[in-house]
Design brief:
This protein is mainly β. Helices cover about 0% and strands about 55% of the residues. It has one domain: Roll (PH-domain like), CATH 2.30.29.
């Protein structure tokens, strides 16, 4: 799956994802992790997700809106 970078010039970049802790956490890595103990690049706590919006069905793109320390944030994903 690909994750779009932050900012106006953000591009989609390939990331490796894992759903952990019985679906409570979505973690992602820049490179394919070798073990469960590899440090992830980012973590999404599913309890903080407020909405998931399908952006483009044909391109399999969606956006996750979630709560963050400074307020709300969103991240765009594309299935590749």
């Amino acid at each position: 799956m690909q994750k779009k970078g932050q900012g106006l010039t953000g591009k989609f970049q390939k990331r490796y994802f894992r759903i952990m802790l019985q679906g409570k956490v979505l973690v992602y890595y820049k490179a394919k992790p070798g073990s469960l103990y590899d440090k992830p690049k980012g973590i999404f706590e599913m309890a903080l997700v407020q909405n998931i919006e399908v952006k483009e069905k044909k391109k399999l793109q969606f956006k996750i809106y979630y709560l963050y320390a400074e307020g709300k944030r969103s991240v765009k994903f594309k299935v590749s």
